[in-house]
From TrEMBL:
Species of provenance: Lynceus sp. MCZ IZ 141354
GO biological process, one term: proteolysis
Protein name from the UniProt record: COP9 signalosome complex subunit 5
Pfam families registered for this protein in UniProt: CSN5_C, JAB
TM segment ranges: none
Subcellular location per the Swiss-Prot or TrEMBL entry: Cytoplasm; Nucleus
Gene: EOG090X078Z
Keywords of the record: Cytoplasm, Hydrolase, Metal-binding, Metalloprotease, Nucleus, Protease, Signalosome, Zinc
Family of this protein: Belongs to the peptidase M67A family. CSN5 subfamily.
Database matches in InterPro entries: CSN5_C, JAMM/MPN+_dom, JAMM_MPN+_peptidase_M67A, MPN
GO cellular component, one term: cytoplasm
Amino acid sequence: MVTHARSGGPLEVMGLLLGKVDGNTMVVMDAFALPVEGTETRVNAQAQAYEYMTAYIESAKQVSRLENAIGWYHSHPGYGCWLSGIDVSTQMLNQNFQEPFVAIVVDPVRTISAGKVCLGAFRTYPKGYKPPNDEPSEYQTIPLNKIEDFGVHAKQYYALEVSYFKSALDRRLLDSLWNKYWVNTLSSSSLITNADYTTGQITDLSDKLEQAEASLGRASLVGLGLGGNATEDRLGKAARDANKTTIEALHGLLSQVVKDKLFNQVYPQLSK
C-alpha cells in the first residue's frame, strides 16, 4: 500500500483489501491497486474500477486465493490519516452493502518524513448515531486548508487499533527487497525527498500562527473570557506542529551526520 501510495506522488490513489474476519479482528492478507484517476484532494472509483475489482477477485479465487474483499485503502499525501466527507460517504455505502468493511488511509509523505508507516484504519458509525464524548484520539497535524473538512466529519467515524504481522513468505520477500534496495535506503535523505513537504509544513505553521495572533488581538479587545481558550488551543496546536516538524528535520539531519561519519571520513589507520 505504501509503495502504491508513493507512486502516486501528490495525487491520491486507491486500492482494495483482501482478507478475512477472525472474531472481532479484521485480518488484511493482501491488497491491490485500482485503476482510478485521483486528484490532490480526492479519489473515487468509477465503473472501470469496479469491473477490474470483480475480475481480480475472480482470478484470485482461481489460483486458490480465497480471501474476500474486506475493505479499501487510499492515500492522503502529506495531510495525515483521517476520513474526509467523501471518504465517509464511500465507507458508509460499503458498510451498508458489503459488511464487514474497513477503510485504511496511508500517508506516504509522512511515512518518509517520520521513518515509520503512517497508516490508520477506520469504520463509520451508523447513520444518525451520536457517539459519546470520548477522550480525544492521538493528536495529528492537519493542514489549515483541511481543518474544516476534518472537523465537520470527525464524529462520523472511529479509528481501529492496528497491528502488523509477517508470514514466512513475507519475511523472504522483505529480505529479497532489502538485498536489492539497501543502497537506495542508505543513499536517500528525507530532507531532500521531502523538501516540498517540509516547506509546506513551515508555511502552514506560519499561517496558523498568524491566525492565532489575529484571534488573540480580537480577544484582547473584547476580553479574554470571550475567546481566550480558543486562542490558547490554537497556539497549543501550533506549538505541537512546530515541535513535530522540528523533530522530523532533526532526525533527517542526524541520519545524514551518521552516514557521513560512516562512509565519507577516511581514518588514518584505514588509509595505510
